[in-house]
# Entry
Amino acid sequence: MTDSDENPTLTRADIGEETGELIVSDTRDNYQALLNMIDKGRRSLDIYTWYLDGKLYDRPEFSTAVRRLASRHPQSRVRILLRDIEPLVKHGHRLIELSRHLSSSMEIRVIHKDYAEYNETFFIVDQRAVLQRKLADRYEGIVNYNDPKLARYLLHHFNEVWEQSQVPTDARRLYL
# Structure
């Protein structure tokens, strides 16, 4: 895909803009949408994922955007739920490092084993904009910059899992 193939709605839409459902099908589409959503976000970011895919989440531009969102307002928050954090702590990851520096506004938890079979990945900004992939290990999914109903539905699941999940066992290593 070249720059001329870029989908302008994925890269320029604002949170709350009526875009309808946009299709993403590869890492580039996912990355463009995620980065744009974070850049336009004002208060919150919730990520539910098996792991923090390096092709999407371990890039300097992405980490900078998350830092800006987390620092934008005293009540801004970034929450990440993931299945397995150990390889990220062991091998390093920009978002793990960022969470160490922004511990008052950014938290990572490991998904409770009762929810280990849940096979979706989703990403919610400001309780309104959603990127959802029904199969966590694939890049096909939908993006909607203004779907508070879907965002509420997914946040309900996210919050339920969040309450049951733990800060990683080696939290001292993660947050020190």
Summary: The mean pLDDT is 91. The two ends are 41 Å apart (CA to CA). Strands lie at 22-24, 44-49, 77-82, 106-110, 121-125, 129-133, 141-144.
